[in-house]
Amino acid sequence: MNYEGTVYRPPLEANSFLLQVAIGCTHNKCTYCNMYAEKCFRVESLKKIEEDLKLAKQYYKTIERIFLVDGDAFVLKTELLKSIALMIKKYFPECKTITMYASIQNIKAKTIEKLKELKELGINDLYVGIESGSDEVLAHVNKGHTVKEAIEQLEKLNEANINHMSIIMLGISGKGNGIENAKATAKLLNNVKPKIIINSTLSVFEGTKLYEELQNGTFVEARELENLMEEKTLIENLELDETFFFGNHVFNSTSVSGILGKDKESMIKKLEYSIENFDEDVFARTFKRTQL
């Protein structure tokens, strides 16, 4: 396939076919993110999308799952997403799921009726970056939504029977705030009931606004021990028996994953072991968060 620039997809979509339908991110203002800094947002043409599907058909006998890139592909208007879904069904009628990143503002722009129409065409499993359940934190990192908006829009997805995966971030609240942030985030997640929780850890990349804050001292990173305690507190406060917790992101120093209803205690015990045996000097020498 011919992709423009670096494309990103969630870890869980490693085996999905990636179809580029847009370039960049419409918001592109989160203070911790530089993934789309060099891209000006635009929508790919249907002609180009169909050419990629024709090419894919030459190489793949069947495709059951397709991930649409770029940064917030769900921003596309409903009719365009429907056209893309129908085009996918034309070349790969066996395709069961069409998934993508979606922001809270993307969802807000679509009615429940429109969401149901998209679900009928196979659009499901939307990845939504909520990052935190704290309005103060969301405002600081310029996420573009409030906690109230997140709850309202994710409840719309639930009503439309569209699965959503909540992406959250340890350490995003800064030094000394991890426990409070974990409890607020757990409260939000308990309300919206995601299918999967994807948990990563903040890495401050050079060139971002957050990096500038780190350099001038207006933002202080949480130490790794606090990140581990934040994750433990988060899991302890989650009440979602059927939800899968994915804490295996490359930025996480301790990998934990499982269904919360049956694996919660084992994940907590693993984190407790890491906390009890944590060595800051060894961590500093052996673990680096430098790039995605």
UniProtKB/TrEMBL annotation:
Keywords for the protein's UniProt record, in alphabetical order: Iron, Iron-sulfur, Metal-binding, S-adenosyl-L-methionine
Protein name (Swiss-Prot/TrEMBL): Radical SAM protein
PANTHER family named among the record's database cross-references: ANAEROBIC MAGNESIUM-PROTOPORPHYRIN IX MONOMETHYL ESTER CYCLASE-RELATED, RADICAL SAM SUPERFAMILY PROTEIN
Gene Ontology MF: a single term: iron-sulfur cluster binding
SUPFAM superfamilies hit by this protein: Radical SAM enzymes
SMART domains attached to this UniProt entry: Elp3
Claim: Ubl conjugation is one of the keywords in the record: no
Transmembrane portions of the chain: none
Cofactors: [4Fe-4S] cluster
Keyword Metal-binding: yes
Domain Radical SAM core: 11-239
